[in-house]
Amino acid sequence: SWDIINNFDVRAYRLPNGGALQACIFGLDHTTAPFVLFLDADDMLAPNSLNKILALVDEKVAKLQYSLGLIDSEGRFIGSAAPALDDYRERSEIIHRVLRTGFYKTPPTSGNVFRRDVCNILREIDYEKYVDGVILYAAPFMGDIVSTSDELGF
Length: 154
Known about the structure:
Layout: H1 2-5, H2 20-29, E1 35-36, H3 49-56, E2 61-68, E3 70-71, E4 77-79, E5 88-90, H4 92-101, E6 112-115, H5 116-119, H6 131-142, E7 144-153
Parallel strand pairs: 2-7
Antiparallel strand pairs: 1-6, 2-6, 3-4, 5-7
């Protein structure tokens, strides 16, 4: 993965494996963008996905979620995401659903873009497991959730 990353004209940092929380906070400390995407090492974005993402976010959006297609080890498409996501922009219904059931349909971390202030909640966490759940479930309480059925990653 590191050799592939170095083939692109991007600023990249290599850290010893200190866990997801440390990596997320390091990324926050080294960026200034108003929205943040945490991409797992075994995931990738679809071509033109950043343009589509930027067209869907604004200052009231706490989280944008998109479907992740399935690929094999060679990067070949092998299937659509399960569960599939719907197209919507919502907040209050998701809050009610989370309060009522503790759940709403959301992809794994790589299928989300978060407003920076949502991610800053991670600085208050003192444990390592499932830290992405904190921002996934805090997001509806901090702004709109935009969902697109487009598969913008794999």
